[in-house]
Amino acid sequence: MNKQLSVDAAKPVVRIVAIGAVPENVIQNICWGLEEEGVPGEVQKVASGSAIVNAKRAAEASKLNVGISVHCKPAQAVLHHRNLKEEEPLFNLLADNLCTSALRCLGTNAARIVKGVPLVLKQHPCNSEIETEDPSFRQSGVMKTGNPLSADLDAMIARVVAEIVDFDSSREGK
Amino acid sequence: MSYIAGVDIGNNTTEVAIATFLDSGDVHVVSSSIVKTVGIKGTLRNVMGIIDALDRALVPLAMSRKKLDAVFLNEATPVIGDVAMETITETVITESAMIGHNPSTPGGMGLCVGTTVTFEALPQAAPEISIIVIVPGNIEFQEVAEKLNRGIEKGLNIVGAILQNDDGVLIHNRLSRPIPIVDEVKYIDRIPLGMQAAIEVAPVGKSIEKLSNPYDISTLFKLTPDETRNVVPIARALSGIRSAVVIKTPRGDIQQRRIPAGTIKLIGHKLKSEVAVEDGAQAIMEMVSRVAPLTEIQAERGTNVGGMFETVREVMADLTDQPVGAIRVQDILAVDTLVPQEVLGSLAGEYSQGNAVGLAAMVETHKLPMQRLARKLELEIELPVEVGGVEAEMAIKGALTTPGTRTPLAVIDLGGGSTDASIIMESGEIRSIHLAGAGDMVTLLINKELGLNDSDMAEKIKCFPLAKVESFFHLRHEDGSVQFFDEPLDPKLFGRIVIITDEGPVPVETREPMEKIVNVRKSAKQRVFVKNTLRSLKRVAPASNIRLISFVTLVGGSALDFEIPGMISAALIEYGVVTGKANVRGVEGPRNAVATGLVLARARAVSEQGAVGP
Q1: Quick one: closest CA in B to A79, which residue?
Q2: N or C: fewer beta carbons within 10 Å in chain A?
Q3: pLDDT score recorded for residue B565
Q4: CB contact under 8 A, B494 and A119
Q5: Which chain B residues contact residue A82 at CB under 8 A?
């Protein structure tokens, strides 16, 4: 039994805008992030437009002051807030970074902004395939840089550096 | 008119005071400076810092170094302090008997008892038993919900679930029947299977009621009175949290075990004694005062404290060209503390408070190669350099330039490695003492009690107040005042507790509320500096009576701390003593006491001799 996301203009929700033909799976991952945190979201579809402008309008229309927009071709997801300048959204994810865990994390962070608790700012491996026909949402890195390994390599380097730093500071004793 | 410079080399800072004096005997301090000490106090590396400090002090005078007539180095007392922590208890969950990590978003609500069955084994499960499903992290939440619903349709009595992933709410929202779900269990594979288990999830904002009560656990699992006694530690460990799991394993338990932490030998002039570190700080400090006056303190090899004692003696031996055997630890400060430790045998990476003892030790000797330093400096700057001036005396002379002071006066130097007190009586007699336990110990306590594992962060928490970031544009300081910003704050800071440093807000990685961090900070300063202030004043005061001291001035790095001087004043009020941060020459605050004292004393001596130089 799926909880229906009610479409009610007066309800306090995070507003999510899908621009153009966005794969269902992409929107769902964002919604699941919100759902696990217990904050309601509502999805609308528009035909076209800029991701940043749409996210800002969505935030202004949201009683919870948070808006998300997702665009495909090129793949982009934006998290915005009523009180931020239009040209300075909180998060602006581009093709490299749009894997399921990053999308779910976007939903999680949108909820956490509403709740006023610390955000999740971890690295995403971005190597999971989203089931979709749209090539722009597939394996990370293929669109932007042409190098499918770049995001994986970055994540691995970040982990190695973090481990070295951890090891050093734990060796220092007191 | 002659110009002389006085140099005080401390453990952390090197300070300079430059004075002019006329033949008439008039002395005026005209400039001062402070830099970080280069290298360990007393080593040749200090010369670099001294030259830097001299040059900085000369800048406002628009004078070259050549114009100085002499430089005087303070006879720095070699004192080295260090700290270590010894954990004396550890918490162990045996046979994976419970889960109490309190995830932020569990699913459902309520209480259930069932037998643990893995997700894979569900199709083979019997319909008569109550089932608690164990779900590993490699299965998507939609599949889990689907299979559980199908199982329920087929007649399986699924009453609860334990998940590895953070999917509690997502799965619960898709189930045909409400059940309590505990998620984010890291070591899901350690959960014993085929055992009776109970899950309880309380509503938002509330704590569990049954699994934190031994008699309710007894009811659920039909325990005997003896078995009920055994679950008391489990019930206690689960109190105050929103969700928990208890698993009935034959010998499952949660225990706090004592860890052998070695002994400390105290050798006094007349008495000798031993005390076990695991007996705690109070027992140790009581023994210290019973055996005092102390000749030497020894710690057991192979322990953290033993290792620290060795290090501190080796550094001093190296510094003063003496054999390690000749160096003795003569004072310690022990402090009881609680440190968060990962519970052994935990299923979800739980932490619990373990008892620990923090120990500061101090070594001091008489010989420091200051002459070597003086010669090296002389070569470098081509000016006459002399060593002289007992540190305690110089500190007092400098502190007495604070407006409003007179003898009897005590000066307490709140340093990094040791707390030093000196006192001058009306007669002019001067007494001094060095004690273990100072700024470094405060930092260690903050670091360990908050489980930070980051001494830089602990240092920042020590030195600066806290705030909570409540929105993109404002934060609330620990005193309740609110500060707004024109530009949005970094998302890294959103919702976090931050330290308001000079360079801007720094986030603290912690699950603790701000009040807890504030309490840890204040308590650490209290247990080290207030305790040592009283300890040292009792030792130097006439007839050990602090009331007979009229004025106490605080100097040193930690005298600049935003709360320590206030805490010390509050503690000394009942002794009728005037306490405050020194204000050397009415301009320096609690800094430059020794350098000022040195230059005033030497200027007088020099003008009496009628000449300057070696």
Answers
A1: B491
A2: N
A3: 96
A4: yes
A5: none
